[in-house]
Amino acid sequence: MKTTVISVLGTQKDARGGHGPGRWGTWRPNIGLVQQDELSIDELHLIFNAEFSTLAERIKRDINAVSPGTEVVFDVIDLKDPWDFEEVYAKFYDYAKSPCFHEERTQYYIHMSTGSHVEQICLFLLAESRHLPGKLIQTSPKEGHVRHSNDSKGTCSIIDLDLSRYDKLAKRFEGERQDDLSFLKRGIKTRNKAFNKLIETIERVSARSSDPILLTGPTGVGKSQLANQIFKLKKQNGQVGGRFVDVNCATLGGELAKAALFGYKKGAFTGAEANHDGYLKEADGGILFLDEIGELPLEAQAMLLKAIEEKTFRPLGATDDEHSDFQIICGTNRDLSIDVADRKFRADLLVRINLWSFELPGLAERREDIEPNLTYELDNFTSKSGKHITFNKEARERFLAFALDPDNLWPGNFRDLNAMVVRMATLSDGGRITEDLVEDEIARSRRAQRPAIRCDPKATVIPFANFDELSRVLGSDFFSRFDSTDIAMLAHVIAVCRCCDTAADAAKRLFAISRKAKANANDSDRLTKFLARFGLKFKEIVRA
Prior knowledge:
Blueprint: E1 2-8, H1 29-33, E2 43-48, H2 53-66, E3 71-76, H3 85-96, E4 106-111, H4 117-128, E5 134-140, E6 155-159, H5 167-184, H6 193-208, E7 213-216, H7 223-236, E8 244-248, H8 255-262, H9 279-282, E9 287-291, H10 298-310, E10 312-313, E11 322-323, E12 327-332, H11 336-341, H12 347-353, E13 356-359, H13 370-385, E14 390-391, H14 393-404, H15 414-427, E15 432-433, H16 435-449, H17 467-474, H18 484-498, H19 503-510, H20 523-532, H21 538-541
Helix pairs in contact: 3-4, 13-15, 14-16, 15-16, 18-19, 19-20
């Protein structure tokens, strides 16, 4: 890992010895720091007032002389009074919140031997609360050091703070972290312990890393909403300054994908009548969310990988590269590793975007969240329509009984819940949803979710699943997300699965011809992988 030290320029101690050769026999904190044998420093950040720039340049030259491998970075923070606690803490706090810290690949240290006592106290507090993500390091002259002794590097010791010893400060830090967590979950109503833990992990990653994030899970679970909340959290914390650009890759195909993502120059193709910035340029300094990333054409994937790694890309028809520094978040309801095996997705791109991968559970796996989200959806309808809508007691109980029934698989997840609430609220009279409205909506949902016709397992002719059945397992928008040939194949596969008790039996029927040519057939695996392309599992499409 890279080693970075944050230090205040010592306007008195670092200035000892002036310009002459005698300065090399005098202990100077920042010069001695980079001379420590047990600590190799790649980068030293010097904090100082602009008026001390001349001294800073002199110290930089001396550091380069004794430690040429150390890069010195100037961080100018102008303080009117370095002994004013309020001013110092406020400006150091703003510095700590800047988006320049990358804990996942850098070991940070905070040097505590220079600056006023107030500056040292503020650095300690920010390190202890983890606003400055580093261990403390203290340097000092050797005991009995004599000036001009040619032993000027002194000694150093490292202190790794233990938060548990400082209860009040630990509670203050935990309170701030919970505030960030509450912000990230805004609009995501959950009582599910596993999902709460998942969101907490995402919050920590979002606060500490600018690397790509991959959000997986079935359609309708809220990937876009969560990506937007991550952006807002980073914006609030000063980690990004640009926009949130939300792109559904399923709507991009062929040359359109490259033109939309990377932009184009006038005359690049027929119809390109003016220069156009693509989504990557729009996301400069912000976050680019690519939903349904698995739908992106292979050629566009190669260009995207270069843009992620090098922060540069070339618009269509351009002769020069353009720059865009964005964080990327991707979403998918597919198993991209299967797409890699089928050569539909680049393995190197998957490796790059899969550093942080989080699978969001479907509504059927978070049934305890249905009740709070029911209230949330009603409140949203009230906000948009201006009409206050509620359930009567019996109607709410009836709807929740249906919603919590294990037989209800919620294939469209929160989209299905939203659609049901909107329909009932729209049809309600006097602002009340009645039992009759709930029963009509339940009947509608059951028609959409009704299982395919069960058939004789020994039958030679198997009926195809109908569109209602496909809507039940894929969500009502499946035609906009899959090719018609894939839909036709899936319809037949679902129908066969409904005729069989196990995945192995279904696989034998589906692959009866090709399996004869294989010595060791693993048809169950073939079936599992085929269903995974659509985000499905055998148990989800076959019910007792």
